Amino acid sequence: MKILMVLTSHDKLGDTGKKTGFWLEEFAAPYYVFKDAGCDVTLASPKGGQPPLDPTSDADDAQTEATKRFKGDKAAQTDLANTVVLATVSPDGFDAVFYPGGHGPLWDLAEDADSIKLIETFARTDRPIAAVCHAPAVFKHPKGADGKPLVSGKTVTGFTNTEEEGAGLTDVVPFLVEDMLKANGGNYEKGADWASFVVTDGKLVTGQNPASSEETARKLIDLV
């Protein structure tokens, strides 16, 4: 089983002067779900190389078993430091694609032509697509075969407006994931803030927040 994981290359948190990037738990937990299941995992990002880590996700209170495992795993660290440039990745041969979140994808992957094309290709060929937390931002522009937004009529979830409010970044982000999914015709559902909540609709799997990352990865594997 070959899984493509696409991470952000964006490290600026709007005009705040602070850094952002990908969320460590949302990469580490799915990465080990895939690895432990014997999957061949390829990591990609728009710029290639080491993707920026959101420093907040590296704080002591954000650590999980998966992040601790990653910090002791030199091979995984080398994998992450050498992501391939997304534009060079052919979707051929991959069984599924997974997008970890963090605020970074709101700026780059949401607008990235290569990512949009990749998602549309996976959808058209009926291969599983998963995104967790802020990563459902990548569904802003992709269209289905009917020309409508890919999430139109589909049950989806993603980082809630109230979770963004709790993070204090409602006025910083370029758009709110919940609002965008609804505007694109998605049947948006959510669970309790910060608790694991994952929905599957056909071959599309979305998770609400960092706590949802492992379950999102497991549900993706179930579809392959």
From TrEMBL:
It comes from the Bacteria. Keywords: Glutamine amidotransferase, Lyase, Stress response. Residues 45-73 are annotated as: Disordered. Residues 25-222 form the DJ-1/PfpI domain. SUPFAM superfamilies: Class I glutamine amidotransferase-like (SSF52317). Belongs to the peptidase C56 family. HSP31-like subfamily. This is Type 1 glutamine amidotransferase domain-containing protein.
